[in-house]
Amino acid sequence: MTALTPWPVAPVVSGRWTVASEPADSPDAQALWAAYYTEVSDRWFRLHHRSDTPPDELARGIAADDGPLELVAPRGLLLVARLAGKASGTAGLRRLEPGTAEVRRVFVHPSARGTGGGSALMAAVDAAAGALGAARLVLNTRHDLVESHRLYERHGFTRAEAYHEGPYRERWYAKRLASAGG
Question: How far is it, in rounded angstroms, from Cα 43 to Cα 92?
Fold first, then answer.
């Protein structure tokens, strides 16, 4: 696989965390994608089927990912968060329209939760949004991912109208960036 060029943004350092743009098809980014997808898929399956995702379905879902194409310049970027040098979290930004970017795939590996990774990622998202020319951020999530709701609200996102429909899109948020005057 050839490395997809990331958008050049300055790394953000927050405590023991460093967050920087990285090719969306790097080994660390791919491992984080698989961990993210496994967790959200298993949570959905447990809620609706009382079991983990069947292995063949999990493998199909991970392999079908088209996210790397959305999270590269000039349309977007992927941020990888490292805790003491170990890739432990991720967040993506995708330009939707002039001035608006969508936050995607916010994830902190379970082994690193409670150490400030979510906050480090959200600070880096705000900083990187300027590189995409965004004055407004939007995102969507599922109702059952309650930890994400708290993280987004703590970082200035408020509930918003749906900006697109689709499976697993149940709750929408938006945020105006302070540097954009509001």
Answer: 21
Q: What is the pLDDT of residues 104-157, one digit of tens each?
A: 989 999 999 999 999 999 999 999 998 888 999 999 998 888 899 999 999 999
β-strand partners of 173:
139, 159
Burial class (CB in 10 A: 0-12, 13-18, 19+), 141: buried
- CA pair distance 28, 40, nearest whole angstrom: 18
Q: Which of 65, 8, 2 is nearest to 31 (CA)?
A: 65
Residues 6+ apart with CB under 8 A from 131: 7, 8, 9, 77
Distance of alpha carbon 4 from alpha carbon 131, whole angstroms: 17
8 Å CB contact between 108 and 118: yes
pTM: 0.89
At position 73, the amino acid (one-letter code) is A
Question: 100-108 and 136-141 as β-strands: parallel, antiparallel, unpaired?
Answer: parallel
* Omega cis (within 30) before 74: yes
